[in-house]
Design a protein that fits this description.
Layout lengths: L19 H7 L2 H16 L3 E5 L1 H8 L6 E6 L2 H12 L2 E5 L4 E6 L2 E7 L1 E4 L8 E4 L2 H6 L9 E3 L8 E2 L4 H7 L1 E2 L6 H4 L2 H13 L2 E2 L1 H10 L8 H13 L3 H10 L14 H14 L6 H8 L5 H10 L4 H14 L2 H4 L6 H8 L4 H10 L3 H12 L10 H6 L6 H15 L6 H13 L1
Parallel strand pairs: 2-5, 10-11
Antiparallel strand pairs: 1-2, 1-8, 3-4, 4-5, 6-7, 8-9
Helix pairs in contact: 8-10, 8-11, 11-12, 12-13, 13-15, 13-18, 14-15, 15-18, 17-19, 18-19
The protein binds adenosine-5'-triphosphate.
C-alpha cells in the first residue's frame, strides 16, 4: 500500500478515561451483561476484546445506539460460538472475513477479528488481514468513529482514543485520518456528509478541502455501493439535509448532474414522512421524489447506474408516467371512473409521490379520492354470476364486468340487485 501522511494526529492518551458508568447507564442491561461475559471469555482465551465504532461515539454523545460492534484481537468466530451457546442465540459467520453475528431474543451483536486493510486500487474493496486493534482503528473513516472501549475485566470500560476522536466530538468536527482516505474509499464522502448533517457537526477544514478535491473519486465506486450509501441516507431522520449538503459539495450531481437537494425536495420529503409516520418512507418513495424532475431518459440513467431493483425502478418509472397525467387529473369535470382509469395500473408509492408533487388542488383531490375510495371499489357480480344470468361465455363477459365496475365507480349502481338489472338491460339490447 502507498505510504500516506497520517492526517489526524495519533496521540497518547494523557489520562485513562473509563466509560463503564456510561455503558451501565445508557445501554440495556442485557447488552451490558453480554459484554461483561464476552470480556471474561476473551480474557480466558488470552485475547483482548473491544467495543468499537459508532456505539462508542454515541455513548460519548449521550445518544441511544444499541448496535454493538465488537472487535477481538484473536478469533471472532470462536468467541461468537461460545457466546451463542451461552445466550442460546443464532450465529451467522463470514469465515472469509472472520466475522460473526449473534442474534438472541431482540438483540444482535456483530463480532469481528481485528484487521488491517489495504486497497489494491481506489474504490476497490479492501484486502484484509488479521491484526491489532491499533491497525483496525487506523483503517476507519473518521476520528469520531475510531474510538474503542476495552471489555476485558481488568481494563473494562477503558477508552482507547488514538486519533483524538473525543476532542473532535467536543469540537463537533468530522475529520479523516489521512490525506488519501477519500481516494482509498470515496464512499466515505457520502458517509462524511451523512454524519455531518445527522450530528450537526462540520467537516474539519482540511478534510473538507480533500473531500472537494476527491469528489471525482466517486466515479471509482460501483453503482451498488453508491446505492447502499443512498439507502443509508434515506434511513436518516432528515435525509433532505444530507442531500442539500451533497448538492452544495457537488456530490449529489455525481449521481446525476440534474439532481437537486433544494427546498422543494425538503418540503416533499417532510410531507412524505408525515404520510409514512410512524415508520420512514421506503427507499423507492424517496428516490421517486429525488428523481421527480428528471426526464424519462435521465431517470433511466439513474436506474441503471444505481442498479435499482425491479420494484424500485418501477416506482420511479410509474412516477414519471403519472406525472404526464396530472394535467388530465386536474380537470374538475373528471368522472370517478376516469380517475380510476388514469391511476389504477400504477404502484401506490408512485401515486403518492405525485400527490405530494402536484401543484393542482383538483388533481390532488382526485388522487386522494382514488387512494381512499376508488381503488377498493368492486362490483358484486362475477363472471360465473353473469354466465348463470345467460351472458354468453367469451370476451363479452369481460366487457360486461368492466362496464359494471365503471357503473359502480360512477355510483350509477350501488347494490347487487341494481347490477343484475343493469346486466339484464344490456343483454336485452
Ligand atoms: P451509524 O450510526 O451510521 O450506524 P456506525 O458508525 O455504526 O454509524 P457503520 O456503517 O455501521 O457505522 O460502520 C461501523 C464502523 O465501521 C464505523 O464506525 C467506522 O468506524 C467503520 N466504517 C464503516 N464504513 C467505513 C468505511 N467506508 N471506511 C472506513 N471505516 C468504515
Amino acid at each position: 500500500m502507498t505510504s500516506v501522511t497520517t492526517y489526524a494526529i495519533m496521540r497518547e492518551m494523557p489520562e485513562v478515561t473509563n466509560l463503564a458508568d456510561k455503558m451501565e447507564n445508557q445501554l440495556p442491561a442485557e447488552l451490558v451483561n453480554f459484554m461483561r461475559v464476552a470480556g471474561g471469555i476473551a480474557t480466558k482465551q488470552g485475547q483482548s476484546l473491544y467495543l468499537v465504532g459508532g456505539v462508542v461515539r454515541d455513548l460519548l454523545l449521550g445518544k441511544a445506539n444499541f448496535d454493538l460492534d465488537l472487535v477481538i484481537e484473536g478469533n471472532a468466530i470462536e468467541l461468537a460460538q461460545q457466546l451463542a451457546e451461552i445466550k442460546l442465540g443464532k450465529m451467522t459467520t463470514h469465515p472469509q472475513f472472520n466475522t460473526a453475528k449473534i442474534k438472541w431474543s431482540k438483540w444482535s451483536v456483530d463480532l469481528a477479528t481485528a484487521r488491517a486493510e489495504s486497497y489494491a486500487k481506489p474504490g476497490a474493496l479492501p484486502t484484509v488481514k488479521p491484526s491489532s486493534i491499533e491497525s483496525d482503528l487506523s483503517r476507519r473513516d473518521f476520528t469520531i468513529n475510531t474510538m474503542a472501549v476495552c471489555l476485558n475485566p481488568n481494563r473494562y470500560g477503558e477508552l482507547i482514543d488514538l486519533y483524538g476522536g473525543r476532542d473532535d466530538l467536543e469540537r463537533r468536527l468530522i475529520r479523516i485520518l489521512h490525506e488519501r482516505s477519500f481516494i482509498d474509499d470515496a464512499t466515505r464522502i457520502w458517509r462524511g456528509v451523512r454524519y455531518e448533517q445527522r450530528l450537526d457537526f462540520q467537516m474539519e477544514r482540511n478534510s473538507l478541502e480533500l473531500l472537494r478535491r476527491d469528489t471525482p473519486m466517486l466515479g471509482t465506486i460501483s453503482g451498488d455501493r453508491i446505492r447502499y450509501e443512498l439507502e443509508c441516507v434515506f434511513q436518516e431522520q432528515e435525509p433532505e439535509k444530507v442531500l442539500r449538503r451533497a448538492e452544495e459539495l457537488n456530490v449529489l450531481q455525481r449521481l446525476h448532474p440534474w439532481l437537486r437537494g433544494n427546498g422543494w425536495l425538503a418540503d416533499k420529503f417532510k410531507a412524505a414522512r408525515k404520510r409514512a409516520s410512524p415508520g420512514l418512507p421506503p427507499f423507492g418513495f424517496y428516490i421517486a421524489l429525488l428523481a421527480y424532475h428528471l426526464s424519462n431518459e435521465q431517470s433511466e440513467h439513474l436506474i441503471s447506474y444505481l442498479r435499482l431493483s425491479k420494484a424500485v425502478a418501477q416506482i420511479v418509472r410509474d412516477t414519471a408516467y403519472i406525472k404526464t397525467k396530472l394535467k388530465a387529473l386536474a380537470d374538475p369535470e373528471l368522472s370517478r371512473s376516469s380517475i380510476y382509469r388514469l391511476l389504477h395500473s400504477y404502484s401506490q408509492p408512485a401515486i403518492i409521490a405525485n400527490l405530494l408533487a402536484s401543484e393542482s388542488p383538483v388533481a390532488c383531490q382526485h388522487i386522494e379520492i382514488f387512494l381512499s375510495e376508488l381503488r377498493y371499489v368492486k362490483s358484486a357480480l362475477n363472471g360465473n354470476d353473469l354466465i348463470k344470468m345467460g351472458v354468453p361465455t367469451g370476451p363479452y363477459i369481460k366487457e360486461i364486468l368492466q362496464r359494471l365496475h365503471q357503473a359502480r365507480l360512477d355510483r350509477k349502481v350501488t347494490s347487487k340487485q341494481g347490477e343484475e338489472e343493469l346486466v339484464k338491460g344490456w343483454i336485452a339490447i
